[in-house]
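Regression test case RT-17, inverse folding.

Input:
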């Protein structure tokens, strides 16, 4: 970043700020991450980098949501939608709408959450990229579970690529099956989720990458382990 600034390379300065924002967020310094993204956003706006600016707005929304500030998070996500729609960055718009749906749900605006989720699902289907369809289905399923609609969550998850080994799909499916009282099926899905996480971890080998992976997935692993324990207790 210092070198880019010394050379007056503004695009590289913005990129460096975005990377630093990610590092600050991973380290738990969310306010500093927001400040870095605000700097990057100003540069991207000056340089006319609409896609990058929209992405930074969405990342800011995610951080604000993590900080427990859903209303400003929704505002940033809405700005991201506008920025990406202006340049027809359709895939980015899907992710912007998903972030907006999460923020709306957290603020208690269920109607808007459902509207944004439906719009994201429809756009993802038009794009027909399996990864985008899967990610939209994951958020839709997550929100359906929170709203107490496990069957709807399973319906959304059925749209995810059946060949995927994504631990999140199995984890959400386990939650939906548990809510429906299908405990054996829920346990099988929870175990599948743990196995997928373990495959990801072991593929990194021993070293800093594996340690970083464990650190970044610590909350998810704890949540899944707790869910498995609940299932085991329920099954006797």
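Golden output:
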């Amino acid at each position: 970043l210092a070198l880019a600034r010394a050379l007056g390379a503004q695009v590289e300065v913005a990129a460096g700020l975005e990377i630093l924002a990610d590092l600050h967020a991973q380290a738990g310094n969310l306010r500093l991450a927001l400040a870095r993204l605000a700097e990057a956003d100003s540069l991207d706006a000056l340089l006319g980098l609409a896609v990058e600016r929209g992405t930074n707005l969405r990342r800011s929304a995610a951080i604000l949501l993590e900080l427990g500030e859903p209303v400003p998070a929704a505002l940033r996500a809405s700005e991201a939608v506008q920025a990406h729609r202006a340049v027809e960055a359709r895939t980015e718009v899907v992710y912007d709408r998903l972030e907006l749906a999460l923020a709306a749900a957290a603020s208690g605006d269920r109607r808007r959450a459902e509207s944004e989720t439906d719009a994201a699902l429809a756009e993802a289907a038009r794009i027909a990229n399996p990864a985008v369809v899967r990610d939209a289905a994951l958020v839709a399923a997550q929100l359906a579970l929170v709203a107490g609609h496990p069957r709807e969550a399973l319906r959304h998850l059925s749209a995810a690529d059946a060949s995927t080994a994504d631990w999140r799909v199995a984890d959400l499916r386990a939650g939906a099956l548990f809510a429906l009282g299908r405990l054996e099926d829920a346990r099988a899905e929870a175990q599948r989720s743990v196995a997928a996480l373990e495959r990801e971890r072991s593929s990194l080998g021993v070293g800093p990458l594996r340690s970083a992976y464990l650190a970044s997935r610590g909350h998810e692993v704890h949540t899944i382990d707790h869910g498995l324990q609940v299932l085991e207790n329920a099954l006797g």
